[in-house]
From TrEMBL:
Belongs to the glycosyl hydrolase 12 (cellulase H) family. The keyword Transcription does not apply. Keywords: Carbohydrate metabolism, Glycosidase, Hydrolase, Polysaccharide degradation, Signal. InterPro entries: ConA-like_dom_sf, GH11/12, GH12. The keyword Hydrolase applies. One of its GO terms (molecular function) is cellulase activity. Transmembrane segments: none annotated. This is Xyloglucan-specific endo-beta-1,4-glucanase A. It comes from the Eukaryota. Residues 1-17 form the signal peptide. Gene3D superfamilies: 2.60.120.180. GO terms for biological process: polysaccharide catabolic process.
Length: 259
């Protein structure tokens, strides 16, 4: 009987001395911010690799009403990010209302001539997009002779847009050519916004799973349009421009780099 009591006591002591299981909270990933303010943003990744902007730049247009929110869903090293954007806009159907986008914050502000490759991958889709939606899904790349230039600034020289989707939206200017870049066909538009020229490459059909080297677009522009490679690439962004309507767009995987 004494041996049984002693064994029971030792067993109880052993159980109580066992290390406690790790808390569930330790395995939870960071909750990312829901961005709904006009200029809200959040930096993501090691060394602030990306920045997600809400960017409701057309909110103050007379006759425009609407709202938008965007949020990072996940981030995985070394640089794959996913996010969702929801919006509803009305009024001024020919004007862009916003550009929720992920901007690359590493490797920019180099001369195009010094850049070897700009690899990117983008997988996206609409969760909700009625037939009345007018919007595009696009990259937006900015050039300047000043490496410290911002986007859409007086020192901007060129804006290069690459539209993976065009839902009844109108690129700036008019079509000047049809190009084949990376084995895909594109309508090339040229126009002017502010003090800078805009080249827009519009895919002939929606590209929901896009993998490319964006440097090829600059090589094409240099050879066919005389765009100088002696300029600086000051920004590389990827997002959506709604004009009017409601939509929910989810990027399940996106990455970009400048080498």
């Amino acid at each position: 009987m004494i041996k049984l009591v002693l064994a029971t006591a030792l067993l109880a002591l052993s159980v109580s001395a066992s290390p406690a299981p790790p808390r569930a909270e330790a395995h939870l990933e960071k909750r990312f911010k829901l961005l709904s303010g006009q200029w809200d943003y959040e930096d993501i990744g090691k060394g602030n690799q990306y920045r997600l902007y809400n960017n409701l730049h057309g909110l103050g247009q007379p006759g425009t009403t609407g709202s938008q929110s965007t949020q990072v869903l996940s981030y995985k090293e070394p640089g794959t990010i996913s996010w969702k954007t929801q919006y509803t806009w009305s009024g001024n159907p020919v004007n862009v209302k916003s550009y929720a986008n992920v901007a690359l914050q590493q490797g920019t502000r180099k001369k195009l001539s010094a850049i070897k490759t700009i690899p990117t991958s983008w997988t996206w889709g609409y969760n909700a997009a009625p037939s009345t939606l007018v919007a595009d899904v696009s990259y937006d790349l900015w050039l300047s002779n000043d490496p410290k230039s911002g986007t859409a600034s007086p020192s901007s020289t060129f804006e290069i847009m690459i539209w993976l989707s065009n839902r009844k939206a109108g690129p700036a200017g008019s079509q000047i050519a049809t190009a084949n870049i990376g084995g895909l066909g594109w309508k090339l538009f040229k126009g002017k916004v502010g003090t800078w020229e805009v080249y827009s490459f519009v895919a002939l059909s929606e590209l929901h799973n896009y993998h490319a080297d964006l440097k090829h677009f600059f090589t094409y522009l240099s050879q066919s349009q005389g765009v100088s490679l002696d300029q600086y690439l000051v920004a590389l962004q990827a997002g959506t421009e709604p004009f009017v309507g409601s939509g929910t767009l989810t990027t399940t995987a996106y990455s970009a780099a400048i080498n």
